[in-house]
Amino acid sequence: MRLPEVSRTIQVPDDVTLSLVGKKVSVKGAKGNLTRDFSYATVALEAQGKDLRIYAKWPRKKETAMVGTLYAHINNMIVGVTKGYTYKLKIVFSHFPLTVKATGGYVSIENFTGERRPRKVKILGDVKVKIDPEDIIITGANLEDVSQTAANIEQSTKVRGKDPRVFLDGIYTYERNEGIA
Predict the structure, then answer these.
(1) I want to staple 121 with a disulfide (CB 3.0 to 4.6 A). Which of 9, 50, 107, 127 is the partner?
(2) Do 118 and 157 belong together in one domain?
(3) What CATH number corresponds to the domain at position 74?
(4) CA 52 from chain center: how many Å?
(5) What is the pLDDT of residues 90-108, one digit of tens each?
(6) Which stretch of DSSP H or E encloses residue 152?
(7) What is the mean pLDDT of residues 16-37?
(8) Would the pTM of this model clear 0.85, i.e. be above it?
(9) Which of 75, 110, 67 is nearest to 91 (CA)?
(10) pLDDT tens readout for residues 52-76
(11) Which range of residues forms the domain containing residue 118?
């Protein structure tokens, strides 16, 4: 049975400015600005004062799911510009000492399992990478960029062709937070 309407409403905090042009949502806050185009979505967006309403009339399963998806994306944008996101990664090695450097929009991982060439990982978007002796701290306002950068760093040091119980060398995510450290 189809419902006549599926709707979700986002209350925008006072310290956040949200603007809607067509299906393009811009969010401005203390930690930065984020803009995202939802023109692919088959649902409607409507700004009502400090609220944003996402709805679909006589939705099928896809439209019902899309309402929840857009609600989550826009909430993540609001949290990003107010608190930000932080991912912490641990540098682990037992055989070959790893050296990690962040320069020029890339993270360079040197001496991974004794390799001569450094592995390079691109830093996505407006993300800040801080490298401590044993940790890598990734911060930013855009959740997708922060999490994808952390995932790319972790995947670049995945051990292949060796027993993972013995060769524990690599970089591993151990903490994810809202709020920039």
Answers:
(1) 107
(2) yes
(3) 3.90.930.12
(4) 22
(5) 999 988 899 999 999 999 9
(6) helix 143-156
(7) 95
(8) yes
(9) 110
(10) 999 999 999 999 999 999 999 999 9
(11) 85-178
